[in-house]
Amino acid sequence: MFKKVVASGLSLMMVLSSTGYQQLVQVHAETNMLSKQLSGIKSVEADKSEKNVVWVTFTNGYKGKLTFLDNGIFRYNVDPKGEFSEYATPRSSAHKARIQQYPDDSDKYKHPEATVTNQGGAYTISAGDVTVTFNQQALMSVKSGNKVVLQETSPLSIGDRSVVQTLAKNDNENYYGGGTQNGRFVHTGKTINIANESGWNDGQVSSPNPFYWSTAGYGVLRNTFADGKYDFGETNSETATATHDEGEFDAYYFVSDGANGAEVSQDILQEYFKVTGNPALLPEYGFYEGHLNCYNRDAWADGEQKADPSKGNKTWVTTNPDGTEFKQTEAGGTGYEIKENLQSESLMGKGPTTKNNVPSGVTTPEQFSAKAVLDRYVENDMPLGYFLPNDGYGCGYGQNGYKVTGGVEADGSSNAERTAAIDANVANLKEFTDYANSKGVDTGLWTQSQLSPDSNNNTSWHLLRDFKKEVKNGGITTLKTDVAWVGQGYSMQLDGVKTAYDTITTEVNKRPNIISLDGWAGSQRFNSVWTGDQAGGNWEYIRFHIPTYIGQSLSGNPNIGSDMDGIHGGAPLIATRDYQWKTFTPQMLNMDGWGTYTKAPHAFADPYKSTSRMYLKLKGQLLPYIYTSAASASNLNTKNGDTGLPMIRAMFLEFPNDDYAYSKNMQYQYMFGDAFLVAPVYQNTELNEETGADIRNDIYLPKGETWIDYFTGKQYRGGTVINNFDAPLWKLHYL
């Protein structure tokens, strides 16, 4: 590691850790042949009653509405239907969550009064420090103070299924945002999809966001749930074009007169949060590692014995505290049903207490329980923050009501027996929660189905959910929402995570840890982003995640995490390097049960195990620093001057006057808060196959600072690039 010598004495860590834009998945964001281009202005008039509202009438008869919300924030809506809806149309009328945190007329906004002047056919609208001008050709330009930040090069084009805005692209102007654009963080000269591809790998999109911003001093949030495509100079190097598949133009604009990229970023993100809501501040335990697996479905046996002779069996190997191997064999997976006389997994080593159809002779030995897995973390001295015991299709968290169906009353409610099975399973969950809490670990659940008992007589009772009871009685405060519940994304995801967030905050008044994917604008106020299901065991897994994390953090959701060494595959070297760099990220998920080995930091013997432990404990030691940075990222004023800036910071956010810090070459290093420079080992450069040692090249140390290797104390002068930096297996380079 390195640290930077600064007047305050803060240490800067630098952690050692190549991406291209893959061909984009096609979305429908293309110009409609029947589109109408706004060709001229007929009139511009201030609203007579709402002093912050201005109406624009175009020569084709369309009307536009500008609503000035705050100093630096305004909304521009051109609706051919003349409806000017308050909120974007959700993809289902059942979805009630909104992109905005409150309506435009809320007293949370200052609503600066707008004035309109006309000089030579050009209309100028002023409100606070913002000036919007429309020329005779209906081209809009925007100024913040005396600084022009945005200029249209073509009038808006509005069709039945396509709306296009084309803006001037200036030299040295960079573009960021768009959500989880895997493998990318700066989009200048490229095109990105704003569409839920549910794509987890490099070049794909998993949690899109119709929000982008420019270092020129503006940001745009398209108020829509429609797919889009943003071309930041790939087709035409002089323009940036944003297209969405809809029939009206509706956007919030955020403007800044910041002198550099850091000031602009901070202004734009704070304004974006003003409209869409502050990012969730995770509970402290959410920054520690989480363990997730299913413990209520499969058959198990000790050692390498067959757990179920009729099925395929897999032997899982971890290590004991003394380094010896610990083996257990599992038979099961999605769709598996336990058979007579087999040993079943469970939460606490206990069977059902109410009506059930568990086959005869089935036992639930404690050594195959979630409790035993948690105990192995404790025995191996591995820090753990939370545990999800039902992460698997067809799992549940208790065997009460196993394979029992029916029990639905005429009104759709559950009869007494059905309800009793739910309550007994919640009691089983509570017993596990109480035990986990006694070890300093919180609990949560994975979600594949609706969060209240359904009215389907064919649903097995042990799979029924009652989220309010799980929270209030079962004691859980974490919820991971998977694709089966929020996978359609857009308004479905936003509505789902809001429901989960509201339930936890109202039922037990605790700060929730909602982990989700397939998100959209506004979801940052409810959930962290999980990047999805990838295969580990290869350098590519680490490589593309680094720019992904940086880019997501610049998109308005600073809370991001991913599976440790992937959900699938895996290898000890990659796992150890993954533990190293993700120590300096918000969330770490051990998604067990799908890979080539047990996904746990004690899966492999030393030196892997002790190295992973060292970094997990280091993260615990850094929690005061991490939590302060997390509060700033949640747009809370910690009096450190970084309100609204993410935890994972692109280099230019801390070194805005260093031109090289804006370079795409910075995609494999970042600042973690204001004090740690992280540069992960992300590829095989000169790998020693026997020891795992390697080197890291191309580490840029920003100028104007003296940098210190945290482990060795060696000093480095800023403004230089370090090559051949030693990276033994135990060492993450951070300064």
Short account of what is shown:
18% of the residues lie in helices and 26% in strands. The chain has 735 residues and is of the alpha+beta class. Strands 2, 7, 8, 9, 10, 11, 12, 14, 17 and 18 form a 10-stranded antiparallel sheet that branches. Strands 3-4-5-6-19-16-15-13 form an 8-stranded antiparallel sheet. An 8-stranded parallel β-barrel has the order 20-24-25-26-27-28-30-32.
CATH class category name of the domain at 3-20 and 625-727:
Mainly Beta
Distance between the first and last residues' Cα = 5 Å
Q: What fraction of residues sit in β-strands?
A: 25-35%
Instruction: Give the overall shape.
Output: globular
CATH architecture of the domain at 3-20 and 625-727: Sandwich
- Alpha-beta content class: alpha+beta
Averaged pLDDT, please?
A: 93
Helix count equals 11
- The total strand number stands at 41
Would you mind describing this structure in some detail?
This is DUF5110 domain-containing protein. InterPro entries: Gal_mutarotase_sf_dom, GH, Glyco_hydro_31_C, Glyco_hydro_31_N_dom, Glyco_hydro_31_TIM, Glyco_hydro_b. With 735 residues, this protein is α+β, with helices and mostly antiparallel strands. The protein is 18% helix and 26% strand. It contains 11 helices and 41 strands. Strands 2, 7, 8, 9, 10, 11, 12, 14, 17 and 18 form a 10-stranded antiparallel beta sheet that branches. α8 (572-582) packs parallel to α9. The radius of gyration is 27 Å and the shape is globular. The N and C termini lie close together (5 Å).
